[in-house]
């Protein structure tokens, strides 16, 4: 068993190392001699403009706390308790980059996010933490003032440990302490710590960023080695009366039971990146980058087979278990981090949900620069905002690119493709292997469908 674990572990470690090496190659990372600690490039690898916060490491921000963008424009920044420098970058075009220059001086301050006691506030959202339980007891969007937390079921981001398989024995944290972690004008956060059953240590950081309409949750669990049956869940009981729950998987949207095959599993669900609960007027999208299993309504993972599931606005992130005693590791000792993001919104928009989930899995990339370099202009643009580009990659032949496009909506979409500011290219339909087919200029992409195109520069 130990030898088998070492072999399986090595696959993950090697994949991580190789992916980082390939990223450095793709970014054309400078050598140590060429490296500048003043300038960094921020890359947007998505097919839509991005506004978000990036975090420069202490090494990447040695020069100071003042950051400027293109044309010397000052950018809002903040030195964090971790030593990182948070920088708000605005409206970076798709498939392009922007250079940040760090210089001595004070951080640029503008409209301020706020922290007051156990409450956080920015332009878009307000929330509060229950100091006794550590859960997010209230979350409101300032656009409509609607409460999005089901207080009757506790609150958001509640750690629940199940010894054995009986969900009624679920235990929360005790000896709760809530304190301010980040207290600047750009980033504000509260840190919840407590004694967590099944863990050496537990903490959760709840964070708001000025100018960004989401809540970020960073849960850290230092797990004890337990070889008896157990499960770890994190609860998110939202309050959306009349809400329809749906989630993404395999380039499609799934409504539990409605879109499932008869006899499919209802005890837990595998999501790609997001779950949305919306009624006709408003809703909330919950996204995760690294915790793909969810339960709906209650903790149901090891309960008798569920043939039918009730509508609910409550979800549980099913992050750990020790139930399947086969050839898995016998315990899950050590530190692990699970991240979540929550965005309230108006009526449901499938494209916006897909963008949000993709952004949380595919953040902006920061790389130290060598000598000052020009902006990387957008590689390509689509004529509609309703469909998304999942990937662009060079293929074997020179000046050829394979583009993977996805329509996340329930309606057919017409689109055109513009390459590098209007540069003339040949566009042909393709398959995933890059085998070219018929020539196209504008194309129709059916609902929930994807397509590949081969772009040849002439």
Lateral arrangement of strands in the main beta sheet: 13-14-15-16-25-22-21-18-19
What would you call the shape? globular
- CATH 4th-level superfamily of the largest domain: Golgi alpha-mannosidase II, domain 4
Q: What is Rg?
A: 23 Å
- The helix fraction, in percent, is under 10%
- Runs in which pLDDT lies below 50 for 5 or more consecutive residues are none
What is the C-level CATH assignment of the largest domain? Mainly Beta
- CATH fold category name of the largest domain: Beta-galactosidase, Chain A, domain 5
Average residue pLDDT: 90
E-strand count = 34
Largest sheet, in brief, is: 9 strands, antiparallel
Strand content: 35-45%
**Domain count:** 3
Please state the second-level CATH architecture of the largest domain: Distorted Sandwich
Amino- and carboxy-terminal Cα gap: 56 Å
The helix-and-strand class reads mainly beta
Number of helices: 2
What does this 3D model show about the protein?
This protein has 458 residues and is mainly beta. It folds into three domains: 2-109 and 364-368, Immunoglobulin-like (Sandwich); 114-347, Golgi alpha-mannosidase II, domain 4 (Beta-galactosidase, Chain A, domain 5, Distorted Sandwich); 380-457, Immunoglobulin-like, CATH 2.60.40. 8% of the residues lie in helices and 44% in strands. It has two helices and 34 strands. The chain has helices at 2-26, 350-361; strands spanning 39-44, 50-56, 66-68, 74-75, 77-79, 85-92, 96-103, 114-116, 119-121, 125-129, 136-141, 158-163, 174-183, 187-195, 199-209, 215-223, 230-237, 244-249, 252-254, 269-270, 274-278, 283-288, 293-296, 314-321, 334-345, 365-368, 380-382, 388-394, 400-406, 413-419, 425-430, 436-439, 442-445, 450-457. The strands form seven sheets. A nine-stranded antiparallel β-sheet has the order 13-14-15-16-25-22-21-18-19, covered by helices on one side. The longest helix has 25 residues, at 2-26. It starts with a helix and ends with a strand. The mean pLDDT is 90.
């Amino acid at each position: 068993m130990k030898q088998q674990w070492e072999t399986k572990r090595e696959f993950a470690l090697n994949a991580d190392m190789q992916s980082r090496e390939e990223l450095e190659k793709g970014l054309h990372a400078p050598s140590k001699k060429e490296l500048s600690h003043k300038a960094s490039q921020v890359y947007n690898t998505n097919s839509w403009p991005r506004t978000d916060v990036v975090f420069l490491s202490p090494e990447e921000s040695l020069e100071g706390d003042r950051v400027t963008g293109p044309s010397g424009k000052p950018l809002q920044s903040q030195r964090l308790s971790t030593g990182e420098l948070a920088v708000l970058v605005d409206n970076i075009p798709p498939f392009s980059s922007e250079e940040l220059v760090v210089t001595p001086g004070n951080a640029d301050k503008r409209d301020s996010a706020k922290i007051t006691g156990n409450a956080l506030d920015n332009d878009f959202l307000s929330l509060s933490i229950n100091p006794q339980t550590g859960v997010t007891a209230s979350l409101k969007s300032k656009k409509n003032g609607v409460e999005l937390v089901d207080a009757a079921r506790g609150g958001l981001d509640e750690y629940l440990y199940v010894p054995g398989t009986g969900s009624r024995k679920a235990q929360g944290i005790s000896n709760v302490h809530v304190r301010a972690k980040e207290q600047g004008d750009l980033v504000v956060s509260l840190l919840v710590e407590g004694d967590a059953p099944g863990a050496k240590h537990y903490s959760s950081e709840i964070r708001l960023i000025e100018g960004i309409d989401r809540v970020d949750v960073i849960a850290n669990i230092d797990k004890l080695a337990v070889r008896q049956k157990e499960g770890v869940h994190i609860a998110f009981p939202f309050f959306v009366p009349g809400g329809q729950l749906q989630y993404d998987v395999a380039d499609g949207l799934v409504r539990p039971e409605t879109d499932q095959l008869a006899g499919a599993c209802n005890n837990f669900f595998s999501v790609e990146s997001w779950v949305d609960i919306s009624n006709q007027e408003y809703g909330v999208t919950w996204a995760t980058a690294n915790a793909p299993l969810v339960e709906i309504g209650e903790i149901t993972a090891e309960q008798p087979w569920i043939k039918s599931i009730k509508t609910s606005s409550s979800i549980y992130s099913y992050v750990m278990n020790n139930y399947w005693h086969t050839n898995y590791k016998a315990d899950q000792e050590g530190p692990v981090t699970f991240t979540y993001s929550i965005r309230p919104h108006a009526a449901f928009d499938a494209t916006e949900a897909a963008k949000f989930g993709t952004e949380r899995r595919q953040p902006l990339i920061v790389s130290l620069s060598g000598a000052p370099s020009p902006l990387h202009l957008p590689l390509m643009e689509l004529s509609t905002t309703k469909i998304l580009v999942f990937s662009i990659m060079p293929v074997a032949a020179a000046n050829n690119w394979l583009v993977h496009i996805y329509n996340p909506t329930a309606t057919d979409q017409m689109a055109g493709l513009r390459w590098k500011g209007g540069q003339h290219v040949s566009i042909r339909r393709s398959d995933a292997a890059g085998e070219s087919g018929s020539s196209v200029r504008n194309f129709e992409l059916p609902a929930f469908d994807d397509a590949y195109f081969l772009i040849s520069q002439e």
